[in-house]
Amino acid sequence: GKSASGKDTLFKEVKQALPELRTITLYTTRPIREGERDGVEYFFVDDAALDCYEKQGKVVEQRAYNTVCGLWRYATVDDGQVDLDRADYLVIGTLESYEKMRGFYGEENLVPLYVEVEDGERLQREQREPKYAEMCRRFLADEKDFSEENLARLGIRKRFSNRDKEKCLDEIIGEIRHGKF
């Protein structure tokens, strides 16, 4: 989903409700934030390390954002974390990352869970700790990245409205359980 749609909160709660799901820890070149731990939220690396993975052909997908704080890169790396024969995984990503992961792991192995919130609500959520330049950049980028055309092109029809978090969480958990059994 778009920024401020509640993905991180829902991710943590789904993980707590379904501990059998493993997570895929992404890599990023952005600075670590207060409360984050290396190897938990992300693997925090520099550009040289990410370039090395790329040269080794281990980058599954990568995206870069020209933020107000500089260029930040995010990537999924084929580093041995994923074994589809032994476990199911939960990961947060963009439509672009979903498309590339689908190509790498196989369409039959990925199920998109698209979370959405009305734009006015998203903007209100973003203003809890406002960084206006970055908020505007992300909002405008999301409009393009998560366009109806892109959602349709990737076959994403089912949506989970996060207006009521508990209802949304129940629906997502139900969808995951339904898909597994």
Index terms:
two-stranded parallel sheet; globular; alpha/beta; 41% helix; four-stranded mixed β-sheet
Secondary structure layout plus pairing:
Elements: H1 7-17, E1 22-23, E2 26-28, E3 42-44, H2 47-55, E4 59-67, E5 70-77, E6 89-90, H3 95-105, E7 114-116, H4 119-126, H5 132-145, H6 148-153, E8 159-161, H7 165-180
Parallel strand pairs: 1-6, 2-3, 7-8
Antiparallel strand pairs: 2-5, 4-5
Helix pairs in contact: 1-7
Write structural notes for this entry.
This protein is an alpha/beta fold and 181 residues long. 41% of the residues lie in helices and 18% in strands. The protein has 7 helices and 8 strands; from the N terminus they run αβββαβββαβαααβα. The strands form 3 sheets. A 4-stranded mixed β-sheet has the order 3-2-5-4. Helix 1 (7-17) packs across helix 7.
